[in-house]
Design a protein that fits this description.
alpha+beta; 4 strands; Alpha-Beta Plaits; 2 domains; 149 residues; Arc Repressor Mutant, subunit A; 5 helices
Length: 149
């Protein structure tokens, strides 16, 4: 069972996954061994699934970051989502119940590369009916290692 202390530990690690256990312990007023044991338990229970690095796509040469909504024939939903996951340009894939059946985040060098990627890779997948890209202009909050607003 997750308690208030576990939630505080998670909040600290979400701010900076490299925060030493000793620092977390000092901030929460408990022994370092308590933090080490709780973090290990959170990892084993699957609450903490991974630690990640957040990068600035522009500094890596990706000047076109877009959220791309994709609608597919229902029978092709899983196959299209799995195929999209294989493309290195695609950094995030989720099925959704919102405006689009699949939401992705793609990183490309420029707008031309985005147009080409959509035309030559996404639209050619069996079952794809509609593709709706939204180019990200400025990022105000990074969440879980992805550049979703």
């Amino acid at each position: 069972m997750i308690d208030e202390r576990d939630l505080k530990i998670i909040d600290i690690l979400r701010e900076n996954a490299r925060t030493p256990h000793t620092e977390i312990a000092a901030r929460l007023g408990v022994a370092e061994s308590t933090i080490r044991n709780r973090v290990r338990a959170l990892e084993e229970e699957g609450v903490i699934q991974q630690y990640t690095v957040i990068t600035d796509p522009a500094k890596l040469g990706y000047n076109s970051v877009a959220l791309v909504g994709i609608d597919v024939e229902p029978t092709h939903l899983l196959d299209v989502a799995l195929r999209l996951s294989e493309f290195s340009e695609v950094k995030f894939v989720a099925t959704s119940a919102g405006d689009h059946m699949i939401m992705t985040e793609v990183w490309l060098t420029d707008g031309g590369a985005l147009r080409t990627f959509i035309a030559e890779k996404i639209r050619k997948l069996d079952g794809v009916q509609n593709v709706s890209p939204t180019v990200i202009m400025d990022n105000w909050k990074v969440r879980s290692g992805h550049l979703l607003p």
